[in-house]
Amino acid sequence: MKGTKIFVIILIILILIAGGLFALKIFNNDETKQANTNSTEEVKEEPTVQTPKTLSGDSRPIAVMIDNNIDAMPQAGLLEADIIYEIIVEGGESRLMLILQDKDLDKIGPIRSARHYFLDYALENDAIYVHYGWSPQAQSDISSLGVDNINGIYESSSAFWRVDDKYAPHNAVTSTKDILEIADRKGYRVDKEKDNVLNYVVAEVELENGDVAEDITIPYSDYNTVEYIYDEELKEYVRYSRGEKQVDWNTGKTITTKNIIIEKAENWTLNDGSGKGRQTLDNIKELEGYYITNGKVIEITCDKESRSGQTVYRDLDGNEINVNDGKTFIQICPIDSNISFE
């Protein structure tokens, strides 16, 4: 009997030891699984490299000449453009040129005629240049420079048409679909071959050492002034022209921009015998300018070495500036323009 009890006790001890070893094995396996899970989760949480969205595609941009006369407003296409150039033309007016990539727009316009110095900025963006008519200087330069262009005057009325809610010459429009179909018919290259003119970055650019620029005024002439007012909530600038807030022709939405670049260039009237007061521009050189974003402004230089060469924008220490991802208005204004920042 006593031997039986000893046997039972020994058996119980062995069972307890075996159970403990089994439990320890399970615990170790759980820890290993947890470690593997944590390791997998850590791999998944590694940050991915972000790239800017603006002009990020491989397709070739299009550059479209837009009427900026008061009778042409509101315009269509400003809302979706990646870059918008504004430059002086005859009579104290200015015209706009939109740089668009991978956009699907049913109506862009009103479209106006080409001016020769706008070609310099179509070329530096490697863009197909779209216009409705041309000055003699632009016609000559388009030919001599070999600019891939689409002149709406020579296209069908189904590709470029006039609308009824504006009057000529402020009512010619087209669509991106029509532009691309014409470009295909003409055999134009469709992939871009140049890097972006602007050095876009994802990380927010804050001009810590800049001056306050929450209200910017840029006079092009006595009656043609552009103004930008900073919206702190949006972190963008609302655009005004001739005292009126600019809106989109198609949707009525307010035109805003993330970035503004100002370049000051000398312009003068051509002595071409036409009597139309057409202008030319001294822009193939280093120009003084400003970069404005997020309520601040810094002085910059704008260096363009040739008509097709890309403008390089540098701070006063000689470093190429980073530009916030988003829309940019490039205001190439008269050299004596009384620009103000508040």
How is the topology of this model organized?
Blueprint: H1 2-44, E1 62-66, E2 83-88, E3 94-100, H2 119-124, E4 128-131, H3 136-145, E5 149-151, E6 161-162, E7 172-173, H4 176-186, E8 200-201, E9 211-212, E10 215-221, E11 224-231, E12 236-241, E13 244-245, E14 256-257, E15 259-269, E16 279-282, E17 286-293, E18 296-303, E19 312-315, E20 323-324, E21 328-334, E22 340-341
Parallel strand pairs: 1-4, 2-21, 4-5, 8-20, 15-21
Antiparallel strand pairs: 1-3, 2-3, 6-7, 9-18, 10-11, 10-22, 11-12, 12-13, 12-14, 15-16, 15-17, 17-18, 18-19
Keywords:
342 residues; alpha+beta; YerB-like fold; 2 domains; 12-stranded mixed β-sheet; 6-stranded antiparallel β-sheet; 22 strands; globular
Account of the 3D structure:
The chain has 342 residues and is α+β, with helices and mostly antiparallel strands. It has two domains: 62-186, YerB-like fold, CATH 3.50.90.10; 200-329 and 337-341, YerB-like (YerB-like fold), CATH 3.50.90.10. Helix content is 20%, strand content 30%. It has four helices and 22 strands. The protein has helices at 2-44, 119-124, 136-145, 176-186; strands spanning 62-66, 83-88, 94-100, 128-131, 149-151, 161-162, 172-173, 200-201, 211-212, 215-221, 224-231, 236-241, 244-245, 256-257, 259-269, 279-282, 286-293, 296-303, 312-315, 323-324, 328-334, 340-341. Strands 1, 2, 3, 4, 5, 9, 15, 16, 17, 18, 19 and 21 form a twelve-stranded mixed beta sheet that branches. The longest helix has 43 residues, at 2-44. It is globular. The model has no long low-confidence stretch (mean pLDDT 91).
